[in-house]
Amino acid sequence: MRILITAGPTREYLDDVRYLSNASSGRMGFALAEAILAAGHQVVLACGPVSLTPPAGCEVHPVETTDDLLSACNRLFPDCDGVIATAAVCDYRPKSRFPGKLAKTGVSLELELVETADVLADLGRHKGPRWIIGFALESDEYAHVNALRKLKHKNCDAIVLNRPTAIGAETNQIEVIDDAGSTVASFAGTKLEVATQLWAWIEQSIVSRASS
Known about the structure:
The protein has helices at residues 27-38, 66-76, 119-125, 143-153, 191-211, and strands at 2-7, 12-13, 19-20, 42-47, 59-62, 82-85, 92-94, 113-115, 131-137, 158-162, 171-178, 183-190. The protein is α/β, with parallel strands linked by helices and 212 residues long. The two termini are 15 Å apart.
């Protein structure tokens, strides 16, 4: 199989040197790439700016902005069997990008933000015979409900729920929610351990169903 993985953060520029982003390290996506390569499959990695070295053997496509990621996914997804979307996409961008570098003026600066493209929803609209696993990072008491809403809205086959403590950490604790809204698996450990267990579950529960 040929699997597309999105990983890391995206950046949305205010001016030529400042940007909005998040603290995603890309470790979960890179761990999944390593686990899938070890299982004998091909990995296509669309990755935002991170300090990690991609696992040997995967096809890497660097991206920076959310629009970059959307373009890469639209180009790469048709030749893949499925996608695991771990990227922490920046949800908003400045409405206007200022040229050069904004200087201090001694007064407050009002910044108008608009939503970025919904990469996962776009993949869901063009899913066809392929499968989609999304990631949802949720922090409140409605985490499960919010993750399930995301699964339905973005046409995923399953969604992985994790918490803000995963950001930049070496370890992770996840639960996997299927399209019926049930928690069907839970994994904890290093991100590579979690990735290996998650990929085994995907092969058994998603890939086998898609190919039957």
